[in-house]
Amino acid sequence: MAHDKPWSASGTTWLPLGDCCQVTAGPSGSLLDNLNEGPSGVPVIAPPDLTEHFTVDTRRLRRVPESQAQRLARFALRAGDILLVRQGTLGRLALIGAEHIGWFYSSSCLRIRPDRELLLPEYLAAYLTHPPVQRELVAQAQSGTVPSLNSTMLNEFSIEVPPLARQHNIIDALADIDEQIQVQRMMLDRLVALRPSVFDQLTRGE
Question: From 92's CA, which of 71, 127, 146, 150 has a CA 20 to 30 Å away?
Answer without folding.
Answer: 71
